[in-house]
Amino acid sequence: MPKASKKELLQLYKDHKVQLLISKYVSGELKTLSPTFDSKHGFKYPVIDEILDDHSKTDAFLQELFEGDVLTRKLYDKIIYCPSCNSANVSVHYTCPYCGSFDIKKSALIEHIKCGYIDTEDHFQKEGKLLCPRCNRELLTPDVDYHRAGVWCNCNQCNKSFDIPVPTHFCRNCTNNFTFEDALCKDIYSYSLTPQATKEANIGYILTVPIIEFFENLGFEVESPGFMNGTSGTRHMFDLTAISAGKKKRTTAIDIATSTDDRVSEQSVISMFAKIFDTTPDKACLVAIPKMSENGRKLASLYKINLVEAKDQNAALEALKSCLKNDLSSS
Ligand SMILES: [Zn+2]
Ligand SMILES: [Zn+2]
Ligand SMILES: [Zn+2]
Predict the structure, then answer these.
(1) pTM above 0.70, yes or no
(2) Which helix (H) or strand (E) holds 255?
(3) Cα–Cα distances in Å, from 72 out to 2, 69, 202, 253?
(4) How far does the centroid of ligand 1 lie from the alpha carbon of residue 177, in Å?
């Protein structure tokens, strides 16, 4: 399976529809995407249909996310299509191996343990009781008096008996009968977010996407990750760089720091400072989720790094927007 490169992945994450789907997983609204059955279309994924607004694109969308390592899949079912009309409205007929009729009767086989007599259940049933037709004793307790010894079928057409019927398919749409040999089968999967995508979604990888959009809408030229050459000759990497349109070409460098604990450590401020000291962007923003440590705050203010603290991705985006809007209007 070809793995998507980081660039391709970013491209995928940039797709608003992909973001919508991932956000459903991340928010917990969706744990596993399972199909629902519809006798007209076969299997459907209503969540995806709703996101795409076009049922015909669902398979390709899921395939792309699977190949891009965003989604992992598990075999959920195999769907059988009629080879004549392609309908998924197909039933199974258990047929007589002798004459091919599906007009067969299935019975349970019962063995009377004491005398060893075996016959179908209806032969034991008398006046609501189970009586052995051979020795006439009553069968009371399963596994003590008797046990079930499998099934036995009888064909109502040719009257022959057999234990294993032959399964065939019947198309309810065009009434075609067909066998396993002719059946069209398709694997149907359920989908989950890969551990990798879950991690990236949680550490703010996904957050870069709305930020990219925000800058692009303002006419910025955005790179993610973004590289800047330092006066030292070192090339530094930021989570994003955004260069404004027009003559001035103001550059904003953005890093995103997240912590699963309460506070982001000041280390992220220090490492960003080392980079901006060398590359001197016009503006530097550090997005801290959920909060920056007290020392980190002091350092950010000292180093003139615009600190954006937010409890989650949406709040971060809002805070970043207002932080940058002020900057844009004053410049
Ligand atoms: Zn058919
Ligand atoms: Zn038969
Ligand atoms: Zn008996």
Answers:
(1) no
(2) strand 251-258
(3) 14, 7, 17, 34
(4) 8
77 Cα to the center of ligand 1, angstroms: 20
State the distance from the centre of ligand 3 to the C-alpha of 131, rounded, in angstroms. 8
Dihedral angle at the C-alpha atoms of 88, 92, 98, 100, nearest 10 degrees?
-40
Does the structure show a pLDDT above 90 at 216? no
Q: Which two tokens stand for residue 86?
A: 């392609």
134 alpha carbon – ligand 1 mean position (Å): 49
Read off the DSSP letter of residue 263: S
- CB of 55 closer than 8 Å to CB of 41: yes
Ligand nearest to the CA of 154: 2
Residue with tokens 């789907």: 21
Ligand at shortest distance from the CA of 84: 1
Q: Give the Å distance between the CA of 35 and the centre of ligand 1.
A: 22
DSSP state of 165: P
- pLDDT tens, position by position, 282-301: 999 998 878 899 999 999 99
Q: What is the pLDDT of residue 331?
A: 43
